[in-house]
């Protein structure tokens, strides 16, 4: 009996935050290695225990279906070290949050130094709009007491000066910019725009493809009959 390596295409699953869906889809939509895609509700990271549980459940459900997983989350202060606890080989995004993924951590720090009171937006955040910020900050819980979320948002954003929209060249730019401007206007922030830099996301995709190829090769070694000799 001899051993031979069967050629098999690596299979990759995506488990990611819906905020990054547009950018991940743009970079992977034509890649046949990505066979499973699931995007989770953006506000899950508010509760670290719930986020970690959901991510673990989704990755667990891919066991036997994929060789590796692209975890489309930055650390978000709640997922540090999570890849070591997951049941499948997994690559996550190397940044503190999704904005660093969209413009690189270095540029993120530079923009924060440039204007410390900055609200960062993107196509995903712009699509969620004003209501997304309300949900993110748990400001809808006081409606029953007669307080409108805008009242609290203006208090929270009192020290903010600008809203910076990051153009990632996905979807309908005019719609997203209009939504971002509406958010800025309602909170009386200066609206600015800048281009993206998807270096971190591109690197993560390359890493997960390499990991999937290695895992596929490791598991696809199978026994084949050797040629009989007379």
Can you give keywords for this protein?
230 residues, alpha/beta, Rossmann fold, 2 domains, four-stranded parallel beta sheet, three-stranded parallel beta sheet, 8 helices, 41% helix, disordered N terminus, disordered C terminus
Number of domain units = 2
User: Termini, distance in Å?
Assistant: 16 Å
Helical content band:
40-55%
Please name the CATH topology of the largest domain: Rossmann fold
Briefly note the structural class of the backbone.
alpha/beta
| Beta-strand content bin | 15-25%
What is the CATH level 1 assignment of the largest domain? Alpha Beta
Uncertain runs: 1-5, 223-230
Principal-axis shape equals globular
Number of helices: 8
* Average of the residue pLDDT scores: 88
How do the strands of the widest beta sheet line up side by side? 3-2-4-5
Multimerization status: single chain
Beta strand count: 9
Please give the largest β-sheet.
Answer: 4 strands, parallel
CATH homologous superfamily label of the largest domain: Response regulator
What's the CATH architecture of the largest domain?
3-Layer(aba) Sandwich
Radius of gyration: 22 Å
Task: Write down the secondary-structure element order.
Answer: EEHEHEEHHEHHEHEHE
Question: What does it look like?
Answer:
The chain is an alpha/beta fold and about 230 residues long. It has 2 domains: about 1-95 and about 200-225, Response regulator (Rossmann fold, 3-Layer(aba) Sandwich); about 105-195, no CATH class. Helices cover about 40% and strands about 20% of the residues. It is built from 8 helices and 9 strands. The strands form 3 sheets. The protein has a 4-stranded parallel β-sheet with strand order 3-2-4-5, sandwiched between helices. α5 packs parallel to α7 (about 175-185). The relative contact order is 0.18. Residues about 1-5 and about 225-230 have low confidence and may be disordered.
